[in-house]
Amino acid sequence: MSDTLWIVVGVLAVLSAATAVAAVIVAVRLFKARRLLRGAGVPDSSRLLFWGALLYLVSPVDLLPDPIYLDDIGVLLPALRSLHEAADAAGVPRTRDGRKPTL
C-alpha cells in the first residue's frame, strides 16, 4: 500500500477510537445520572429515554455503521440532558458547595 493510504487508514482509526471513547464517556455519565435520579421522583418518560438511549447504543442496528459512533453520541447526549433537567425538576439535592452534582 502507498504511504498516503496508510495515513488515511491511520487517521480513520484514530477518529474511530476517539468517537468510541467519547461514546463510552457519555454512557458512563448517563449511568451516573440514572443512579443519582433513582428514587428521586423522576418521571417515567425520563427513565424510558435513558433505557432507549442505552438500547440504541448496544443495538447492532444503527444509522451509521458501528465504527462510527457519532449517531450513538447524538442519542446519548439528549438522554443525558433530559436526565439533568429531570433532576432539576425533581429537586435532586446539590453538592455541599451548592453546585449541581457532577454526572
UniProtKB/TrEMBL annotation:
<protein>
    <submittedName>
        <fullName>DUF1232 domain-containing protein</fullName>
    </submittedName>
</protein>
<dbReference type="Pfam" id="PF06803">
    <property type="entry name" value="DUF1232"/>
</dbReference>
<keyword id="KW-0472">Membrane</keyword>
<keyword id="KW-1133">Transmembrane helix</keyword>
<feature type="domain" description="DUF1232">
    <location>
        <begin position="47"/>
        <end position="77"/>
    </location>
</feature>
<feature type="transmembrane region" description="Helical">
    <location>
        <begin position="6"/>
        <end position="28"/>
    </location>
</feature>
<dbReference type="InterPro" id="IPR010652">
    <property type="entry name" value="DUF1232"/>
</dbReference>
<keyword id="KW-0812">Transmembrane</keyword>
